[in-house]
């Protein structure tokens, strides 16, 4: 549906001479890429690994798919700005009627896509990328409708260029926001809602724990936060009990259901913080 409308909008943009409509068509192309990548990545993420090499599976495929969507959105924004600058001072004829009709149809298509993607966007950065892309395109369709009305009412074709620039800037801002999330995951930063310092303090507060070191917390993919840590226990502590309580703390306080904890009676010389 989205791919079909992209072709329709592109043809309409070229025949009407509307930069705003062409911008929205470019953004719709980004939608096609984002949705296609989201579908492929979702299937890859759930596919079992038979090679034995991908010990974490293929879950991060969705993060890479989101990165592709970011690049497409930035490319569309750059093209719009360059094209708009080239139109400054030039006379342009814009078919406002075509803009209005196509913009309205585009808005309807995007609203349907948003309804289908809304629930999944809360659970997956991949689907979230596609959702934000479609949301931005829906606003772009609204902007096309506004531009068509302004051009028809005033006869000034430069309204089309102004609206196109606005769409381009909006798309760029959304791309940067999503891009920051993608980089945060790929750089293995601590999840935004998890403080490594708080995790360390809570583990240190577990009865029997004397020291916490070599703590790492990161996001594997959307909804999958993981952690590793070494716990040095007191001499009289029950290691298994400490381990069970520490895992319970990670789950209940920080939502870290997947954690690898190593319990040590003393901190040996061979066990030290990674220096890389």
What's the SSE blueprint?
Elements: H1 2-16, H2 19-45, H3 61-87, H4 96-117, H5 125-154, H6 158-186, H7 196-204, E1 209-221, E2 224-233, H8 239-254, E3 258-264
Parallel strand pairs: 2-3
Antiparallel strand pairs: 1-2
Helix pairs in contact: 1-2, 1-4, 2-3, 2-5, 2-6, 3-5, 3-6, 4-5, 5-6
Structural class: mainly alpha
Please identify which CATH superfamily of the largest domain we are dealing with: Cation efflux protein transmembrane domain
CATH third-tier fold name of the largest domain:
Alpha-lytic protease prodomain-like
Helix content: 55-70%
Query: What is the number of helical segments per DSSP (H or I, 4+ residues)?
Result: 8
Shape: elongated
Widest β-sheet, arrangement of strands: 1-2-3
Mind telling me the CATH class of the largest domain? Mainly Alpha
Instruction: Report the span from N to C terminus.
Output: 48 Å
Task: Determine the mean pLDDT.
Answer: 79
How many discrete domains?
2
Looking at the overall shape, the CATH architecture of the largest domain is Up-down Bundle
Main β-sheet: number of strands, strand sense, barrel status? 3 strands, mixed
Radius of gyration: 25 Å
Query: Ranges with pLDDT <50 over ≥5 residues?
Result: none
Give the beta-strand count.
3
| Beta-strand residue fraction | 5-15%
Listing every helix as H and every strand as E from the N terminus to the C terminus, the arrangement reads HHHHHHHEEHE
